[in-house]
Batch of 2 targets.
Target 1
Amino acid sequence: MINKDRLLDTFIALTALDSESRAEAPVRDYLMRWFKGRAESLEEDSAAAAVNGNCGNVLVRLPGSGGGRPLLFSCHMDTVKPGRGIKAALDSDNIIRGAGDTILGSDDKAGIAAILEAVTVMEEQGIKHPPLELLFTVCEEQGLLGARHFDLDTLRSAMGFVLDSSGAPGSIVVQSPSQYELNYYVTGKAAHAGMCPEMGLNAIQVMAQALAKMPCGRVDEETTCNFGMIEGGQARNAVAAECHVKGEARSLKPEKLERLADELSRIFTDTVTAAGAQGLVERVLLYSAVDYDPEAEVVKLASQAAAGLGLPVSLDKTGGGSDASVINRRIPCVNLGIGMSAVHTVEEYISWDDMADVARWIVAIVRLAGSDEAVNPVG
């Protein structure tokens, strides 16, 4: 059914396209060419302006050839750094790797390649399927920015599947966290560091005092917190008047996330006030927790399709977010495992066999969705 050589060629061609976040246009152009003549419609939205990038999200609609409600499949087009000049190749163990000085880009181009192969197979074999929507997003690696700026109300699908988990094919993420972006600002008072430091109030030092008291890292088995960026001061010989720290907090349980965010704010505010400085806290909810029952229709459809292929079904939880976290605001959507490993590192790799299994899984989901064999038929 799946043409593995063609799938490999597609994946290698995609990885050769530079598409670090905010520079995904080469992949957009590839997809536009690929779907021309196949799609009912090809639409690029205005997310480029919102994310300060060179292209927007791409929504492809394929007409149905059988029964069933529309289904959505989604991947992101961007990669993390270093993602320029990728040279992917298959080794003797059927593992695809990069040259070692860049990432591979299986996150998430393996998902894109699997979708394209699945569509080709459905065409070649005349497989009856419901209408399909294929969403390719930008800036996923920058906090799901593309999905967050996509108009979810334009979707017609009854449910969706994101192909962006590191689990093996057959794994389905049924639980993922809520996440806050956290920003802490301290305003102190500038002064000359050598002539009159006592006239100033060092915002960096005050921030350090606050951070030393705030939880960081693994808070409990369901909750994490991290401070990842800090900036402040204007010169080595000037008492720093301002300091800014950017961080995040996540939890599989929304109530735990709220308690943690409140605790962090309280510690920060109390410490800054006691030091005589001024503080400001900003927190932005990036996405909400996902928690699916194994009996949910979207989970059962993916599970049944995987089991029918002989793939081991695994219902997983993760501490990471994906575009599924955003799409869930509109339709039920789960993130599926595609077998990518060591992502966001130059050691990244993926199995050729796993990529083929993902393509098979997509075809099986689509076929099952339009049949009467599903436990909870779609349509």
Target 2
Amino acid sequence: MDIKAYTNEAVELLKELIAIPSISRDETKAADCLSEYLNQWNLPHGREGNNLWIGCQDWDNNRPTVMLNAHIDTVKPVSSWTRDPFNPTQEGDILYGLGSNDCGGGLVSLLQAYRIMLYRPRNYNILWVASAEEEISGANGFSRVLPHLPKVDVAIVGEPTGLQPAIAEKGLMVIDGYAYGKSGHAARNEGVNAIYEALDDLVWLRDYKFRKESPLLGPTKMTVTVVESGTQHNVIPDSLHFIIDVRANEYYQNEYLFEFLRKKMTKCELRARSFRLHSSSISPEHPIIRKCVERGMQPFGSPTLSDQALMPFPSFKLGPGESCRSHSADEFIKVSEIEQAIETYVYLLDGLTI
């Protein structure tokens, strides 16, 4: 088949996936749909939970492995949709539907590129992986399937990047902070105000700047996004809870940042929810990135998180669509973007030496 035929198949598959609600932790029917397609195309595959993967018929453990990955789950549709988010609607070049851009377009494009490259000469193994629970970094997503996969040397993650290579990605750490005081009557000089106890720490957090800035990702950012305290106007609050959103560049590990904050924010108790979502990057000199540049693409750093954070091997994001369409009302992907993505993936994979 030519690229047009592969594109048409990809669009039809994507329409079926859009019509199946697959919000994180509820991807079973979407995974079933993908599995049926793989069976129709005679592609034996593995499944762990709602994660699917396919190797290649000429697998050789002595060769390096390239993984193609995208996720099958979506966020919940926002209330401002003006059309049915689960009704795939094509108007000319535009296909509307929840998950079309993030990241159904990348998912089906990578699958078609995999099918094309499966029967072309390669000096590497090729592996396609569809993962669940990406939108919530869930335990039953990529982390669950990773132990079942062979050793991977480099991965392309099909997130929407306007088909430009995102060669670095910020990490994420969420921290719960607590300050404690003693309740009393607001009209009398009683008690210890938990809000005031936290103030110095929160002002320090607002003003502190980490020294190491990344040319691709910029500074490591810490932002207080939630503050909860008090019961009513005339009671001194005896506790305060706040949440810190930490976005690390590649120079700082989450564990280091957490210990640093604990030493500086001495009035508050801090608890990290997880350290697992680290910043990730790939060398601009990696052969596959050099092929990107040869094709006129511009490497950049991405502020948004993906399954890359869970990959203990070099990876980068490259996919059809635009990040600004993700998680928004009337989400869409262009058919021409899917076609261009398939062509681009095949270009990068054809003759690749790693």
